[in-house]
Amino acid sequence: MQSAITVSLVPQAVRGPFVFHGNFADSARVASRIGFDAIEIFPPFADALNTAETQSVLADCGLSLAALGTGAGWLVHRRSLAHPDHQARSEAIDFVRRIMDVASEFHAPAIIGSMQGKSGDGVTLDQARGLLRESLEALDAHAAASNGKLLYEPLNRYETDQCNTLEQGAAMIRDLPNVRLLADWFHMNIEEADMAQALRQFGSAIGHIHFADTNRRAVGLGHLDAQPLIQTLRQIGYTGYLSAEVFPYPTSEEAARQTADAYIKLVKTDS
Ligand code: LER
Ligand code: MN
After folding, report:
1. Catalytic choice (40, 153, 191, 192)
2. Which of 9, 53, 231, 242 has the most CB atoms less than 10 A away?
3. pTM above 0.90, yes or no
4. Rounded CA gap, 131 and 168, in Å?
5. Whose CA is nearest to atom 3 of ligand 1?
6. Active-site residue 137, yes or no?
7. What sign does the CA torsion over 28, 34, 37, 40 have?
């Protein structure tokens, strides 16, 4: 397992659950100093990332790119992979495809979270799920053709009704070889009956973890019992990232340090 930390480059997400906000290079330097393996970026759109510059900052800091988020597609542009209008849905697919192409240059996946859409505005839940599945099939085909990778993230019920649990997520991505599940501990704490059991049961489909405590603060600042979860991940042979998608509480640097301490305590020293 490897450690990662999040940075948002989206002004509209200033109150969102990202450890760093605003400046990629400065954030990468702090992450590197604290000892993280990788950084996960939440960009406003694909072209906002200068690939060469990003590459050079990552190399200077000895960091990998863990993943690129696509959530700004929804947050800023209101694009949805379950939009009932064909043209609007194509534009949403294209938005993700372009972020995926940038991520591929770093051998990293793109994340589909908020862009999965939901039912409402005349769209039934069955329709919304069917439209999302069609979009995921198109993106999976693009991944196959371009060496890309995708992560699909079940979200809690207050954000979507598409898939709230790992079980529903695993069914949504069935037979899509380039799409894996993102297990976000904040969402799982709300939706799963037994988090360790869910990780064990759907572990083979999991490609990424959002490492967060119950209150979406750094692990250790809420009431999550993280040790059995790490033990389960170890037992199933999970080798991906634990990426802190948490609030910058009490500050970005302190949230980063708390995450690093939790990671060392749980992953590096307990076996
Ligand atoms: C995105 O990773 C996520 O977890 C959602 O809650 C959107 O913020
Ligand atoms: Mn998440």
Report:
1. 153
2. 242
3. yes
4. 15
5. 113
6. no
7. negative
Angle, helices 252-263/24-34, rounded to nearest 10 degrees: 40
Which residue, chain included where needed, has tokens 């790992």?
166
Burial of 222 (0-12, 13-18, 19+ CB in 10 A): middle
User: Over the stretch 232-253, which tens digit does the pLDDT of each residue have?
Assistant: 999 999 999 999 999 999 999 9
Q: Pick from 4, 46, 6, 3: which is nearest to 22 by CA?
A: 6
Give the number of the ligand closest to the Cα of residue 116.
Answer: 1
- Ligand 1 atom nearest to CA at 114: 7
The fold for domain 2-269 equals: TIM Barrel (3.20.20)
- Each domain of the chain, given as residue ranges in start order, spans 2-269
- Joined tokens for residue 122: 């005349």
Q: Which of these is catalytic: 40, 191, 192, 245?
A: 245
Question: Do the Cβ atoms of 6 and 39 come closer than 8 Å?
Answer: yes
Instruction: Name the residue among 38, 13, 2, 12 with its Cα closest to residue 248.
Output: 13
Preceding amide of 250 cis, omega within 30: yes
The tens digit of pLDDT for each residue in 76-119 reads: 999 999 999 999 999 999 999 999 999 999 999 999 999 999 99
